[in-house]
Amino acid sequence: MPIKRLAISCLFAFAVFLSSFGGTLRAAGPGFAAMACEPGAVEAGFRLPPRSALVPYPSREEALAGGTSSYVIPLEEWQRDSVPEGVRYTARFKVRYAWDNRAVLLRVEDVPSSFGIEVNGEAAGYSQAGMGRTEFDITDFIRQDYNTVSVIVCEAPAARRIGEGRGRDAESWRGRAWVLSQPSVRIHDLFAETSVDGGYGYVALDIVMQSILLNPKEYTVCYELLDPKGEVVAMSQKDIVTGMLSRDTVRFTVRIPDPLVWNHETPNLYTLLVRSRNEGRFVENAAVRVGFRTPGTSDGVFLIDGLPVGLYAVRYAMGGDEGAAATELARFKAEGYNCIVADGTPQPDCFYALCDSLGLYVCDAADINTSREPARITVGGNPSNAPEWKDAYIDRIHRMYYASHLHPSVVMYAPAHDSRNGYCLYESYVELKRLAPGVPVFYDGAGGEWNSDMDAAALFRHPDVVRPAGRLSVTMERDGSDEVVVANNMELTSARGTYRVVLKSGVKSLWTASGEFRLMGGGALHIPVPVPEGVRRGSVQVEVHLLKDISSQGAGQGGKVSDMYDVLKMKFPL
């Protein structure tokens, strides 16, 4: 019996023993049922630690283009039947010849309750948490040709006390699952912490490599950073030697000049391409979008890159149709909202990608809601203050964080919703601060206690003030004196360029002023216009040249100077 198969047999043995007194035994069902009754049974078998939603591709070009990968098989045509534990979904897939000597993983999303996994009739894993993304290593269970995967959704797990499965019955799963293949030495995860300092953009890049081999292997780990136009602005590589069944972290420090920052006004996205090479051949390619920004808080005020930002948030949960979600999120943006609070659970990866591109901040949410439990936090009361639930809370924190931490739109985390307060949520706050030290934590049930950096009043505001359209506005003020006002309508983004103001009477120029300007977010330039006595009719003509939002990398060679500016021309009667 392979080592992994022996290990999972031991993991399930006790649960099967406990349930065997009930009479019938099946390959995996009783084990799943027994574990689903225990608050501390968070996972079993070959459930992998939570990680980013990486998609492996055979080539650089395919990774940059995105879309369908030949290393990913969607599971479809699920057959559903009832079992004592709840509902069982079963699908078939065929292993491709090119997948020989590679790891085979099962990725399952948004299961409405605690669930177990069977592969070819054998128990392969269990997860107490269902919503969000769950992965299992099913390499040792795979046969050549056709295989079956079963997802057994439990109807009444113990985790219902913390919200698992509430409002979602076992028959509501939409069958979101994939089988994917990665090399025997694979890119397991990425960590990319971005910042801007002194005119430079920095990326602290960690690439986690996982080996399932029993012998050492020489690999080269490479990265490329591409700007929003697709031009490579940084690249490097390092050689490593993997150990037996090892996990190694390869670290890079990336620095680029004059980066284009990401925020709700300028959602500039860079592409980070990571590759692994063995014996001169690239064996794996993966790409993610990243943005240069640093979220934080000060005295309950949200900050981006150290600057205060007014948040206008709305709760939202993606229904399932990406096109409909894109329309709804664009509508929120047009109405003046700049922040989405994930409503109750982690969202599909495409939701975060949409928010990345639209410039919408996201408060991600762990799948914890104990609002139907007793309000008291004494023994036998709300699970949020019951130590036996701590591991379940922390597991859901990890699932939330690792699933979305690479997305620049995710700038804060909600460890729970409407779940009272207590020991488990205190520990959840501490764990989030360990994972993401400077990122704000918002909990609507903190009640003024220390485990929330912001309160609801700082987020849920209606955008009743309509901001002027465009980056700049030019007005003429006559409150006691005549002056032209050039205002930067942006909250964070500075504006610079040149201006020229001409006072005319008919065709005759009476006065001219010109110069350069640089306005911080919300700033304004006031230009007094001296109107000579006796001038009754005439006009003030204003011409402003605003430098476009480009970087030194984006300027390119051979471009016209006029292409670098937006021109505003205004005329005001006297």
Oligomer: single chain
Beta strands, count: 31
**Helix- and strand-based class?**
mainly beta
Task: Please name the CATH architecture of the largest domain.
Answer: Sandwich
CATH classification, class level of the largest domain:
Mainly Beta
Shape: globular
Q: If you average the pLDDT, what whole number results?
A: 88
Helix content: 10-25%
Radius of gyration: 28 Å
Within the largest sheet, what's the order of strands?
1-7-6-9-4-3
Kindly estimate the percentage of residues that lie in beta strands according to DSSP.
35-45%
Number of domains: 4
Q: Major sheet, described briefly?
A: 6 strands, antiparallel
Could you give me the name of the CATH homologous superfamily of the largest domain?
Galactose-binding domain-like
What is the name of the CATH topology of the largest domain? Answer: Jelly Rolls
Count of runs of 4 or more consecutive helical residues: 8
* Uncertain stretches: 3-30, 551-556
The end-to-end distance, rounded to whole angstroms, is 92 Å
